[in-house]
Write a structure and sequence with these properties.
Elements (H helix, E strand, L loop, with lengths): L4 H4 L33 E7 L2 E8 L2 E7 L9 E5 L2 E3 L3 E7 L8 H9 L5 H8 L5 E10 L2 E10 L3 E12 L2 E8 L4 E8 L2 E2 L11 E4 L2 E7 L8 E2 L3 E3 L12 E9 L17 H4 L3 E5 L4 H12 L6 E5 L23 H14 L3 E6 L3 E3 L26 E3 L5 H16 L4 E3 L19 H19 L3 E3 L12 E2 L15 H6 L12 H4 L15 H13 L4 E3 L1 H4 L5 H18 L4 E7 L5 E2 L1 H7 L4 E6 L4 E5 L5 E3 L2 E3 L4 E4 L4 E7 L2 E8 L2 E5 L14 E12 L2 E10 L8 E8 L9 E5 L14 E9 L15 E9 L16 E12 L2 E9 L11 H4 L9 E2 L3 E3 L2 E7 L2 E6 L6 E6 L4 E6 L5 E3 L3 E3 L2 E6 L3 E7 L1
Amino acid sequence: MMLSITSTWLGGLGSPCPAQDLLPFNGGSAISPVPLTREPVQTSLSEEGGQYSFICSGNGEKLEYILNPQLGLLKGLSIRVNGQDIANPFRVKFTMAPESKEFTEADRERQAADETVDLSKLQQLAASVKASTRFLGARKEGDILVTDYELSDPSVGTATLRMTIQAIGKSLEISMAADKPILDSVTISTWGKPIPSEYEIGGPSYRISDNCFAAAFPDMWQSDASKVKSDGTVYNTLTDGSRALLRETFYLTVSDVYAETLANSPWPASPYLEEFENRVVLDLFEGTFADHLSLLEELKDYQVDSFLIILHYWQDKGFDRSNPDMMPANDGPGGDAGLRALSVRAQELGHRFSLHENYYDIAVATVPQYEDFLALNPDGSHLPRSGGNMFFIKPSRHMEMALPRAAEATQAYDLNLTFHDVMPHWKVDYDATAEDVGSLRLSALKQKDYFEAMRVERNSPIITEMLGSSLAGLWDGGCNAYMNNQRNRKLLPLASLLKVHNKQANHGVGYYERWLPWGFKPGWSTYKLTDRELDRYRAMQIGFGRMGFIGRQLTNYTPHLHAIVREYHLMRAFGAAYINQNIRQLEYQTDNGQWIGPVEAAETGQWQRLRATYDGGQVVWVNYSDAPWKVDGLDLPAWGSATRGPRSVAGTELRDGQISDYAEYGDIVYADARSHTWTPVENQPPITPRLGNWKDLGNGRFELEVVWDAGRTLPHDYRSFWMFRDAGSTVSRPVFHTVVQPGDVPTSAWQAGQSYSDTRFLSIPDKDARTGGPNKTDKYDIVVGMTHPTGATTRPELTHRLDQMRIATMEVQRKGDKIIGIQITEADQAPPPGEDPAPYREGLNADGKVLDFGEVSTNGAVVIRKLPDGCEVVPLPQGEPMVIGLNGALQEVVAYVGNQNEPMTLETKVVGDKTYFKLPAGVNRVMVKE
């Protein structure tokens, strides 16, 4: 059997049509946000009659920024491209605010009422005379222009603003500094038609003419602002009313090439990109440490040996309940000894192992102990993470809190990877008595220090719960942590591939539950994604050049072994194709078969069929449309994907009209004819919660009974949670909730066939627990379930294998802010997602058709490991009967059944260029000698 990537990778691929070479715009080595240019650009500054011309020349092009500073702040700017004048695409705006000592009580009330601190409104309210700008002078210092302005407002005062301007590449760098802290925001925006894109570092670019683009963005790393947006910055006051002096740098860019307007991350690329070519991220959540270890041991038989593992549920008091004090490991799933054993064995198997760590939040229960560590809002209140359940630690004290605890975890569990919960670099401490406060830049730099220290502490990469495009390279990779993040995003990855992909290797396209359209509705954590859902998710990963990600829904409760193995090998092959490789060409095929560039695809909405060529000749295709796509000798189904090149071959493609999967990288071949599908495990006798009696007690108070019908006994004393969510919400966090013992009888004493009742008196709160703001919800879903008091043991399955159920809806009647009545109605218990087998059969090879993958033919799924004198073949799942054909003549085919060491020689038959054999049921592996 001759398995060779180089023998198959061309696979009918014709020569791609000429397209723009993107290699010069790859920002992997960039150390400045300044947009890169295709070729070196010569810059100069000239002056005539008080008018200054910044000239950028290169590649036969001439760009001029012409500025008359006497006309005002950039109001006198004009643009000329190759002699053609273009209207000024940039608008500048400053706002000024009274110093706190000069505030009147009315001013304070107005500011308190305006949480966005839009101080332009304060100006309108407090000033009867319009603010003015006065030109003080300009001078040329070499190729740098220095200008001074006086900004004044009778209700605020006067400040001098100095601007230094120079041309770099095709951009204007504008640095500005004020001499008094009375400027509270600055915005430089562009106009025109925005170019849709995803994950730009500096913000969007705009088409300002048929052949010209413009962008403007602030440099957060040269700003003292407390908020940095894509087009400007804001300076909030500290707790003592003081405000930092305005210090900013903006970059303004005009170019006839869209890629020349995109900002870069200024940080060095991750040192782990080469390793990440061979890694896939695995999320482990519910279950015991022994369960997780058993899964990893089973997966090793399928050559699954290179995960980045994140264990989320392990903390002493449960997930996110006691941050930052998470140790020791929770006894429920196995304690310290079990966790260390899992970590050590996972590493022996070839994986990196990390824990879900969070040293940036403090749980409510531990606030008194860490009062001095809490970050403050400008009004002196604690800075909440969400709903007042967690509070942020001061960035200035993060290292003090984090490093000792992280070092203790390293020693206890022998960790060789770090995963960190969301690192809120955009959160700022306003405590005037602390160090390094009031500035987003300083907050982010504290995180930089932490990540660098943790790389040394564990000699390992850092991955996080967020992407952090503007911080790319500060850590080594992240995922999408938030709702509505990916499923409906357009496959427009140019900015991400050029500027983020070569700095860090992000993984996945969001947690499955946040990618699926129904989100956190009951059933979300027990649901198993269908093959076609996984195809679509995988296609998005591939289009954005991400590492593979396997989420909790495939590993929780009964693991979906087949899907885990498939995702691993496919994404290992795609990772080998493009991780640590620069994008060279990006093209889209239109409905009429024409190839267009990414800007045209974004503007016309024809972005569903992508072809990406990476440095070295590796080509990737993604079909993110609902129709099949024949391209370059490939036959891709809806949501199919493929790669061909010198580093790997892989794809989800149509073979003989059947959806199938193939991966070839290193010494591994994976072939899957899609004849095996997920079959839901039979329910245990159910534990069924239902609505009992209820009573409206007036003024938002009510009495509620939940009845639990016990179909089986339970092994632990669980507590029940009652969550009141926005009706129909896909978000996990409830408006309010309560955790109680489910009835007077402990659950460990429940008897099968009995019912147990619990009644509670509750009140609709004035504030929404998710936001801390006024609670205006009028309709709730009442969702209940059970959890172990430790918080880390798997929740018991209820009816339909759910671990939580919606039992009722509650409608609230209001008159103004007063609640005048409630109505509770039992919910319709329709089967949850995952109960209907039909979606799981979509694309199934139901007839067991044998498919020819080139080097191998089969009607099942196999993992093949190449050996010097042959290969090892493992059927997926082990024991599944199937037909296998391998290229060339075979000397011997020996099968091993179950745990028996006695080999069984299989008969072979040569048909065409392949030698075929049949695997009987029960075979674990086959050894083939050529």
